[in-house]
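Tutorial handout. Part one gives the primary structure; part two gives the three-dimensional structure as C-alpha cells.
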Amino acid sequence: WSSDVCSSDLGILRVKLPSSTNGRYDLTNNATGAAASLYFQTIFNESANTRPLDLVLGGSNTGTNTIAQILDNGGANGCIQLDMNGPGTWILAGANEMPQKTSAGNVARVAVNAGTLVVKDPASLGSITAANVSIQTGGTLQIDGVTLNQTALSLKSGGTIRMNGVATVNGVIIGNTAATSATLSTTSASDVMTVGAVSGGAVDTVLHFTGPGTVLLNQPATYLGKCSIDAGTNQISDPTALGTGGNLNIAAGAVFDVSLLGATTYTLSTKALSANGTGTTDRKSTRLNSSHAN
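Part two.
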C-alpha cells in the first residue's frame, strides 16, 4: 500500500492518500493472548474522492479487536472497501460512514472472507447495499442483537451469518455457484434470528441451520436449493419460506417447527422432507404436506 498515515490522538487513525493513489491499509493482530487486542476510536478516510481505501482486517487474535467508528467526511472522500481476512476476530462497535459509491472503478464493499466480523450497531456496515455485503469462504458475520440497515446480506459458499441475541436479518441472498454450502446459526439456545426473504441458490446448494437457538423464516422465499436443519430449531411462519428446493433434511436432535402457520392443512413449497435419528417436526396437530412426491 501507499499512504500518508498520521495519528493525532490515542485511538485515532487518519489515512491520507494522494489523488493519484489507490490505498490499502492492513490492521493485523497476531498476538497469542486474547487480551492483547487493538482498539481504534475513529478511523478517518481522508483519501481523494476519486480514490478508494481498502481497510483489511487480519491476524489470528480472537480478542476484542475493535473499531468504534469509521468516518468518510460525510461521503465526500473515496469509497471504502472493508475486507475481513481473519482468521481472528474484529468488532465494528458503532455506526460507520461507509456510503455505497465507486472510486476509480472500485466499488465500496464489505467482504467477510475469513475469521469473524462482529457488528453491534444497525449502521455498522454503513449504507453498503446487499449485493456488496458478502460473507464467504469460511468467514462469519456475527450480529450482536441488532437489525442491520441492509435490506439483505449476500451469503456465499462457506459463509456463516450468526446471531448473538434476538434480532432480524432483513433478507439473505444465497450464492449460486456450484455446490454452494452456507450457514445460518446462533450462539446460544435463547437466541432468535428472524430472517426475511431468502433468495438465490441453485439446485445443488445447501443452506444449513446449525443452532443451538432458533432461526425463524417469516417471508415467502424464491430460494432454489436444499435446506438442512443440523441442530437447534428452524421455525417458519409462511409455507413458502423454504423456497422451492429439492429437500428439507432434519438431523438427529434438530427441530422443524411449523406451529406458527396455525392452519389445519398447508403445503410447503419444498419438494420433500427427510429426517435422521430423532429429528423432529413440531406441527402442533396440523397436517403437513410437501408440494411434490418424493
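Part three, for discussion. Confidence is low (pLDDT under 50) at residues 1-9, 284-288. The first strand starts at residue 4 and ends at 6.
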